[in-house]
Amino acid sequence: MTRRDQQRLYDITTAIDTIRQHVNRGDLSDGLIFDAVRVRLIEIGEAVKALPNDLLEHEPGVPWSEVAGMRDRLAHHYFDTSHAILQATVEHDLPELEQAVQRLQAHVDDD
């Protein structure tokens, strides 16, 4: 595990924390909140894309390719972004992702 990989895991947890702060300020019907959350989800996907597969394999329950694919969709098809999909991602997927990343961080710290 490289320092760069540790930084990417940190980037993901920081983005999740920031999304939580944005949502605490308002809901996704507010354009600023929506855009801020979308950008942080793009950051998460970018960080995931930079992580090595052998690390991600330690958390096989996470659909890593879908996380990366969502980044591409949000970055390239921003006019087609569904509020409902973002809401579901924030409510249901991010807590699971956060737990998986924390386990990966613990795994890295043990090495």
TrEMBL record:
Highest classification ranks of the organism: Bacteria, Bacillati, Actinomycetota, Actinomycetes, Jiangellales
Sample GO molecular function, one term: RNA nuclease activity
InterPro entries attached to this UniProt entry: HepT-like, HepT_RNase_toxin
PANTHER family, A to Z: RNASE MJ1380-RELATED, UPF0331 PROTEIN MJ0127
Keyword set, alphabetical order: Hydrolase, Nuclease, Nucleotide-binding, Phosphoprotein, Toxin-antitoxin system
Protein name as it appears in the record: DUF86 domain-containing protein
Pfam families, sorted: HepT-like (PF01934)
Record's GO cellular component terms: toxin-antitoxin complex
